[in-house]
Amino acid sequence: MNEAADIQPLDVAAEQAVVILSGLSGGGKTAAAKLFEDLGYTVVDNLPGELLPDLAALVSSDRRRFARVAIVVDVRSGDAGLALGAMRGALEGRGITPRVVFLEASDDVLIRRFSETRHRHPLADDRGIATSIAQERRVLEPVRAASDVIIDTSDLSLRQLRERLFAQLGTPTRPDQLALQLISFGFKYGVPLEADLVFDVRFLTNPYYVASLRKKSGLTKPVRDYVMEQAPAGVFLDFLYGFLEFAVPAYVAEGKTRLTIAIGCTGGFHRSIVLVEQLATWLRERDQGPVAVFHRELDRI
User: Fold this and answer.
1) What is the pTM of this model?
2) Distance between CA atoms of 102 and 74, rounded to whole angstroms?
3) Rounded CA gap, 194 and 131, in Å?
4) More confident of the two residues 7 and 246
5) So where are the chain's domains?
6) Which of 29, 91, 186, 254 is exposed most, by the fewest CB atoms within 10 A?
């Protein structure tokens, strides 16, 4: 991740908040843990998996002292999937529902980060860093699947990571809802790793080629009007609305708690932003669940 400054504390709920933080080595867990510390969380890192149930008992025994706790569970905990299940079960058995956050990044970014920091990968052997990363992805897949929030940190600054983390953690859901995350992105920069559904809107005429619109983002009225005046934009949104009216209840019935929808265009600055904003408005009007929006490429231009 890029460096960023000006980290200001956020308002947090008075009730006990417990976060289980997991993810790939080099994915940003250290930076995230520091953010939680800055907000007054007690952060527990690199605890053996066998001790996690005892930690759950301690956290529940003094809810004033441990009003905010972030616990890192990853491959260093041993069997990460088993450790997560034990920790989550021990907390829920004591009336505490933790939020599980999983941080990841693309292989090339992870390799670069390890090269820059010269840190040793926890699964390192003589086969090389790429093999270690691939093995870690396989080992942590059950943890990823059980997570409430998944964030791809490949291109995030510290400020962006902070915003994404606390936007997600501040959006509780009812049992009949999904936590919905909408991402606009540019295909030229890669598809977001955390996306469950990806839609390509490069079939729409690109405002980039209109000189007066090139430097205006999809958040501005001229670009929004230019995109939405195209007939295919309305057809696409009608299709997407109909699909989600069917799919969201089906996901809820299957026990899914989160859904990340990514909409991409070439640069992620015009068309995808417009359509993500339109979709967010529609979802909020229908109370499908809390909606978080992230325009990944907005700061690029």
Assistant:
1) 0.74
2) 10
3) 21
4) 246
5) 17-169, 179-300
6) 254
* Cβ-contact 257, 178 below 8 angstroms: yes
**Of 3.40.50.300, 3.60.21.10, 1.10.287.110, 3.40.50.620, which CATH number belongs to 17-169?**
3.40.50.300
Statement: residue 24 has pLDDT above 90: yes
- The Cα 239–Cα 160 span in angstroms is 31
Q: Identify the CA nearest to 173 among candidates 79, 256, 96, 269.
A: 256
Mean pLDDT of the chain: 89
Examine the pLDDT at 27 and tell me if it is beyond 90: yes
The tokens for 223 are 């670009």
